[in-house]
Amino acid sequence: MSEVEESIMSYLSQRDTDASTTDLNVVAMLHNFWEQRQTCRSNGSSGESDASAGDVVIQPQSSLLYESAASPGPSHVCYVTLPGGSCFGNYKVCETQAEARRDAARVALMNSLVNELPCRRIDSQFIAQSLQQAASDSGVSVVVEDARDSSTSIGTYILLLHSYEGRTMLEFQEMMTLFQLLQWNGTLKALRERRCSRQSVISYYSQRGLDEYIRSSMALDWLGREQRSPGRLGEELQVAQRELVLARRRGIELRFYKEKAEILSLALSQAYIHHTPEAFNEAANPTHKHEQLPLQTLYSRGTEVKMYPTLQSFNNPP
Questions:
Q1: Does the global pTM surpass 0.70?
Q2: Order of strands across the sheet with 87-89?
Q3: 278: helix, coil or strand?
């Protein structure tokens, strides 16, 4: 764990001294932070050039979104989604919705502030380090020629990193969440079998972004798998929700885990329409019930996902 990550975990573990004051301040501080950042970006003074991202033209949402996960127990869960799509949840066990919202805002604010540090910018040094880390995690040796060849998985990874040079790691992760979901769903494997080039796949999905059509398409894929192998969908959903719980308790970015759980929940809801509820009793009564009920919008104004997930996404089939 890096020094920055240790500092974040130390901060998140601190107890609040005045709940009502902290609730007011931290939610307002997070809102003001992103309001100012959006204003700077719209005025072209944020220091970030859209052209530097190559073909990546995903337009972020313009508001913060708080969502509360209903729970039959005494604890409450809240998620906050930032304008770029990154998602964070409450780190502590919270007895009220207000406390959960405050804690989720606190986690999001800490990560937002850290993301602005110079060390969180993607530069040549970071690209070199992440290349070595990705190769190490994937168990492959780095060959200079492969890194320069965009038709290889390692070359594609470097191409993506260079397209985000000068931008933050959180922005890069927001884009990579989509490709992680495509890898998890088996979409990238299917496109490789159809001989689609990596460059064309990256260009298409980078411009499109993660929308409701893609989510629905993935849900249909999992519905088909459930029909071919009854019970698989419920098992996958339980695994995804356990991963979401563990990730939230670590105070890390959650969008990949949350999107997976919601896609599988959508597929399961469709499966209920075509099958008797008895067939899904096991899926409907999982261990982590408090994380599995539908999300409801609580408040609105306006993936641990590793930092080096891309090499595996463009190399190994799921």
A1: yes
A2: 87-89, 77-81, 64-69, 295-301
A3: helix
Here the tokens at position 74 are 């005494």
User: b/e per residue, 63-87, with b = 16+ CB within 10 A?
Assistant: ebbbbbbebeeeebbbbbbbbbbbb
Grouping H, G, I as helix, E, B as strand and the rest as coil, residue 107 is: helix
Residue 211 tokens, joined: 């929308």
- Using DSSP bridges, classify how beta strands 64-69 and 77-81 pair: parallel, antiparallel or unpaired: antiparallel
Residue count of the chain, please give it.
318
Other beta carbons less than 10 A from residue 116's beta carbon? 12
| Residue pointed to by tokens 């066990």 | 93
280 burial type by CB count under 10 A (0-12 exposed, 13-18 middle, 19+ buried) = buried
The separation between CA 100 and the C-alpha centre of its own chain, rounded to angstroms, equals 19
Could you report the per-residue pLDDT of 89-100, keeping only the tens digit for each?
A: 999 999 999 999
**For the chain, how many helices (H) and strands (E)?**
14, 4
Answer yes or no: is pLDDT of 53 > 60: no
81, 87 Cβ separation under 8 angstroms: yes
pLDDT given at position 3: 55
> Is there a contact between 150 and 195 (Cβ–Cβ < 8 Å)?
no
Instruction: List the single range of 81-90, 105-114, 259-268, 305-314 with lowest mean pLDDT.
Output: 305-314
Output b/e per residue, 2-36; b: 16+ Cβ within 10 A: eeeeeebeeebeeeeeeeeebbeebbeebbebbbe
Which tokens belong to 215? 């989510």
> What are the tokens at 126?
């970071």
Query: Token match 């190399």: residue?
Result: 315
Q: Which of 106, 318, 131, 102 is nearest to 225 (CA)?
A: 318
Question: Minimal CA–CA distance to 309: which of 252, 238, 235, 249?
Answer: 252
pLDDT in tens, 180-198: 999 999 999 999 899 988 8
